[in-house]
Specification:
With 117 residues, the chain is of the alpha+beta class. It has three helices and five strands. The protein has a five-stranded antiparallel beta sheet.
């Protein structure tokens, strides 16, 4: 192989990596979560979740990083300041088995787990 062909292939690979990296940041929850993790003292990512899948459903008015309700690929989350535990979570399976479940109303969640911290 000559040097031009090696450079061309290297540039194509670099462009593909850049394209997919930017896509992951801008078209998945990752970009917003990274920004909040870096800029907001109020943002807390649940230990059961991932910045790749965590998505805020409802935020506290006036506080950009403080979410009230969120979801990821396996659980729903709700801040639970009343019990000083941080947050509650319920799996999708448990949520579907709970009559009257509302993802934006933690009082309908029945028995849900709390943050272990």
């Amino acid at each position: 192989m000559n040097i031009r062909r090696i450079l061309k292939i290297s540039l194509q690979i670099a462009a593909a990596v850049l394209f997919f990296s930017l896509g992951a940041v801008f078209f998945t929850p990752l970009g917003g979560n990274l920004r909040l993790m870096l800029t907001s003292a109020d943002f807390r990512l649940p230990t059961e979740s991932s910045p790749f899948t965590f998505r805020i459903l409802e935020s506290q008015e006036g506080s950009e990083g403080r979410w009230l309700y969120a979801v990821d690929g396996t659980n729903y989350y709700a801040l639970d300041d009343t019990k000083c535990v941080g947050y509650r979570f319920i799996s999708f399976d448990d949520a579907m088995a709970t009559p009257g479940f509302d993802a934006l109303n933690a009082t309908t969640w029945g028995e849900s787990e709390t943050d272990p911290d």
